[in-house]
Design a protein that fits this description.
- The complex is a heterodimer of chains A (about 110) and B (about 800).
- By secondary structure, chain A is α+β, with helices and mostly antiparallel strands.
- Chain A has a single domain (about 1-110), classed as Alpha-Beta Plaits (2-Layer Sandwich), CATH 3.30.70.
- In chain A, about 20% of the residues lie in helices and about 35% in strands.
- In chain A, strand 3 (about 40-45) and strand 4 (about 50-55) form a beta hairpin.
- The radius of gyration of chain A is 17 Å and the shape is elongated.
- Chain B contains 42 helices and 15 strands.
- In chain B, strands 8-9-11-10-14-15-13-12 form an eight-stranded antiparallel β-sheet.
- The chains are: A alpha+beta (about 110), B alpha+beta (about 800).
């Protein structure tokens, strides 16, 4: 099993969610996060006051899928979230040792 | 709702009996276990007592039991250890969750600073098993202890209640309330009960306690239901349980929202009774701290007495004689952030005639504007709601009172959400630990009254048009405008804010905020910077009022980025978007054709920021300008003056106006200058008169108009006038603001934009505009604003019809910094 973690632009969430739904991925965890990569932050001056805008709002999306679906899922996320501009985000893939459904103790891919 | 009450009668009676029966059964189980496991093993006398809820014989189906094991001496406590653990094991095995403490009678009558809860629980002491004489000795000693500690324990109770209420935002209107701890829950009933037990003078508190007998029975039945359904000590009345209790209570004949209104009605009575008892307890508190707080008594007026942070009516007959007088009371509360006394609230609530007058002829807009402009508006609105006057003045308000609209994120009923949103704006103006950027936006907002009324009405449609609440709120607002006689310009703003109150939230998550198209999308819906600012503030308040943690740093940042994107685009479009022939003709459809010509070429912002009456006035002045060369008018509005000047375009025009005002000691607060297609420049300059020269000498207004006219005609020189100027007071040296000047050649196709922020001083604008004119630049459009000692100016300038080159821009930048440098 693989855990796929994607940092995307907030306005791309609906498109990414639809893309995943279209390939049968329904289980998602979504968080509102802030951070920066190469996009970095900047200083903003508003009416004479300077504000440091170093952490930009992003959406973190997490899902766990069977190994065989990893490429399909990352492609779907990448295609839906891509605009070609700096700030589109990143996708990280992790190995998952075990998954257990708390309700009935299903484990492994059965629990996904 | 009478039917709803009647539906639960069986449940009410059954619940009361169930508490007594469970207490009886638990008493027996405790006594049996004690007889079997304690008596045979203990030589020293002991008594098992019930305390807390168990002591009150108020054992709900899943409530814990609190036991006090009483011994005569410390030796008894030590000897108790082993037999007691056996006894407790049996109690737990019997399915009872017991908490116990072992104490001597002496310990119980000695103040434990760190364990005030012990003394509160002992107020409900009841004998269950053991040595009755030992219990009697304690029961006989306790009254003297409580008499001695009455003030201290009362104060502790009040503080604990205050913290508990604050944890729930001091409101009963939670969508999923905790019926034990939330305001209006069981803990408030207990609070009254304890205050009554402690008080030497029990009359007033007993009276409050008696008044909530009905709500007490209601809450008892609800809590029994919750415990049985959940099979645990659950006091959270969640949506699922609301469905179940409605089906059970009303036999499926009503919606859960209707049953919840019944709940809120009862909880509100309990909460008010608790507040009343706390007020009474505070009045009797002689502590030094309390007396210190009474410095605010100095705020008392001929109408109101301020005592212990409460407002008392000095002359009730007069205050309650007219809606305007009564509204002045709430305005007083909103100004000073003080609650009405219980007595004042009772009188207002009982005065049916006053409510009828509020309904038939509410106070005029001027009185409401005064109320809505104060710093603590939400506090006053809550009290108006509790006394029924808010619903009387705004009948649509009834449709959202106690209205539950189920939503995963929302925590409060619709009415409470709206008042909390107003409170967010109050807090933004009052507190330092809030978003600095939105606080800055609020500081720029001159008309907070309109913003607050829009917030109060923005969700009213949820009660009248559940599927399309924006339309419903607009319909309700139209009715409110007529009832309160709201002026046209305020109506326009409120309608705009309600109609667009979801726009920025939707852009926050639905659009690419770095894409210029997002800015254009925003400006296609939001015509002016003032509208955008108000909408950003309304959205900030609306999101913050969803629940206490809804305005996360993430959302705050996104909302600000949306605001910045719109603001940047509006600035860009300011000079580009001009009134064309068609727009001019539309506005002038029922006016003279010359008006359409006059409008042509002014920025489109002009139409959005001026009423038709103001446009007509400017047009009349333009006709005078055409006859006489210049037209100048000065009017007084809300403590400031407005100079309206129309003249043919000429070099240094704006600088001359600023100079003329500066040399007369006037302080420019805001200014706008723009021109139409026919070479007519319209300057609008709002200024204050720190020396009150214009106010005290009526002829001076005409004299100033004459001076300005002469300056515009070049028959008087600003330089000569400046020489005669008296030096005006300057800001203290501690408040120096270093000038910040930025150029932007990208913001407009034809102009260079200068963005200036610096320390304001008399004559600053004249010095700056003179510097701009001195290098041959023309000011095409200007927006001037001030915040306290800070001047915030935006100039759109050209030189020989185009943008400034880099070299000229840089030298002008240095010159502007030099003239604006604080001394």
């Amino acid at each position: 099993m693989k855990k796929i973690e994607a940092i995307i632009q907030p306005y791309k969430l609906d498109e990414v969610r639809d893309a995943l739904k279209n390939i049968g991925v329904d289980g998602l965890t979504i968080s509102e996060v802030r951070g920066h990569g190469r996009q970095k932050g900047h200083k903003e001056v508003y009416r004479g006051m300077e504000y440091e805008v170093d952490l930009l709002p992003k959406i973190k999306l997490e899902t766990v899928v069977p190994d065989a679906r990893k490429d399909e899922v990352t492609r779907a996320i990448s295609a839906a979230a891509r605009t070609g501009k700096i700030g589109d985000g990143k996708i990280f893939v992790f190995d998952v040792a075990e998954a257990i459904r708390i309700r009935n103790d299903d484990s492994g891919e059965l629990a996904l | 709702m009478a039917d709803a009450d009647a539906g639960g009668e069986g449940l009410l009676a059954e619940a009361a009996a169930a508490l007594v029966e469970r207490t009886r059964l638990v008493d027996r189980a405790v006594a049996d276990a004690a007889a079997k496991y304690l008596t045979p093993q203990l030589a020293l006398p002991f008594a098992i007592c019930a305390v807390g809820g168990y002591g009150r014989s108020e054992l709900f189906p899943q409530s814990d039991i609190d036991l006090l094991v009483l011994t005569e001496t410390e030796a008894g406590v030590a000897a108790m250890k082993e037999p007691l653990s056996q006894f407790l094991r049996v109690i737990w095995d019997g399915g009872l969750r017991a908490s116990q403490s072992v104490r001597t009678t002496g310990e119980c009558c000695r103040l434990h600073e760190q364990n005030i809860e012990l003394h509160i629980s002992l107020l409900d002491l009841r004998f269950v098993y053991g040595d009755a004489r030992l219990f009697e000795r304690l029961a006989a000693a306790l009254p003297a202890f409580y008499q001695k500690q009455e003030a201290r324990l009362t104060r502790e109770l009040a503080e604990m209640a205050g913290k508990r209420h604050a944890k729930f935002n001091n409101t009963v209107y939670h969508l999923e309330p905790n019926i034990k701890d939330a305001p209006g829950g069981f803990r408030d009933i207990h609070l009254l009960h304890w205050l009554a037990l402690l008080a030497q003078d029990k009359g007033r508190i007993r009276e409050a306690l008696d008044a909530i007998e009905g709500p007490r029975k209601f809450l008892t039945a609800v809590r029994c239901f919750l415990h049985r359904q959940s099979q645990r000590d659950n006091n959270l009345l969640g949506f699922e349980l609301q469905d179940k209790i409605t089906a059970f209570w009303l036999d499926g004949k009503a919606e859960p929202a209707e049953w919840m209104r019944l709940y809120y009605r009862h909880a509100r009575q309990v909460f008010q009774a608790a507040l009343r008892a706390l007020e009474f307890a505070e009045l009797r508190d002689p502590s030094i701290a309390r007396q210190f707080r009474d410095w605010r008594e100095r705020l008392s007026s001929s109408e109101f007495t301020v005592s212990h942070e409460r407002i008392f009516l000095r002359n009730p007959a007069n205050t309650l004689s007219t809606p305007a007088n009564a509204l002045a009371l709430f305005t007083f509360a909103a100004r000073h952030g003080m609650q009405l006394s219980w007595d004042a609230q009772r009188r207002i609530t009982a005065d049916g005639n006053l409510a009828a007058q509020f309904q038939s002829k509410p106070p005029p807009w001027s009185a409401w504007r005064e109320l809505f402009s104060q710093p603590h508006v939400a506090l006053a609105l809550r009290q108006m709601q509790e006394t029924g006057l808010l619903g009387a003045a705004i009948p649509h308000w009834h449709s959202v009172e106690c209205l539950v609209v189920r939503d995963f994120y929302h925590r409060y009923t619709v009415d409470e959400h709206s008042i909390v949103a107003v409170e967010v704006i109050d807090q933004l103006g009052l507190k330092q630990d809030v978003s600095v950027r939105f606080r800055e936006l609020l500081l720029q907002e001159e008309d907070r009254a309109t913003l607050r009324l829009a917030l109060l009405l923005h969700d009213v449609g949820k009660g009248t048009r559940p599927g399309d609440h924006v339309t419903g709120s607009l319909e309700a607002a139209a009715d409110v405008f007529e009832r309160l006689d709201v002026p046209p310009e305020n109506r326009q703003t409120i309608k705009f804010l309600i109609a667009h109150h979801l726009d920025l939230s939707s852009v926050m998550t639905g659009r690419d905020l770095d894409d210029p198209a997002t800015g254009r999308f925003l400006t296609s819906r939001i015509p002016t910077q003032e509208d955008l600012r108000r909408l950003a503030l309304l959205t900030y308040a609306d999101i913050s009022a969803v629940n206490p943690t809804a305005m996360t740093p993430w959302r705050l940042e996104q909302l600000w980025r949306v605001y910045s994107s719109g603001q940047e685009q509006l600035t860009r479009e300011l000079i580009a978007n001009r009134i064309d022939r068609e727009q001019g003709a539309t506005v002038a459809a029922n006016e003279s054709p010359e008006l359409a010509l006059f409008l042509q070429g002014f920025p489109t912002r002009y139409l959005r920021t001026h009423t038709l009456a103001q446009v007509r006035r400017h047009f009349e002045l333009d006709q005078k300008r055409q006859r006489e060369g210049v037209a100048v008018s000065i009017t007084q509005e809300a403590g400031t003056f407005l100079l309206t000047a129309l003249a043919s375009d000429q070099a240094g025009l704006f600088a001359k106006l600023c100079g003329a005002l500066a040399c007369k000691g006037m302080n420019i607060l805001k200014a706008e200058a723009s021109s139409n297609s026919h070479g007519c420049v319209l300057d609008l300059i709002r200024f204050s008169d720190p020396m009150r020269n214009l106010e005290l000498n009526t002829d001076e207004v005409r004299r100033l108009e004459w001076t300005v006219e002469c300056v515009l005609r070049d028959s008087l020189s600003v330089a000569d006038l400046i020489k005669q100027r008296r030096s005006a007071p300057r800001p203290s040296s501690g408040s120096k603001i270093m000038p910040s000047v930025r150029f932007n050649n990208e913001a407009s196709d034809d102009c260079t934009l200068i963005d200036f922020v610096g320390e304001d001083r008399p004559g600053l604008l004249y010095d700056m505009t003179s510097a701009i004119s001195a290098v041959g630049c023309n000011i095409e459009l200007v927006l001037v604003d001030t915040e306290a000692h800070k001047a915030i100016d935006v100039f759109y300038i050209t030189r020989e019809g185009g943008k400034l080159d880099e070299e000229l821009a840089q030298s002008l930048l240095e010159e502007l910094k030099r003239v604006a440098m604080p001394v």
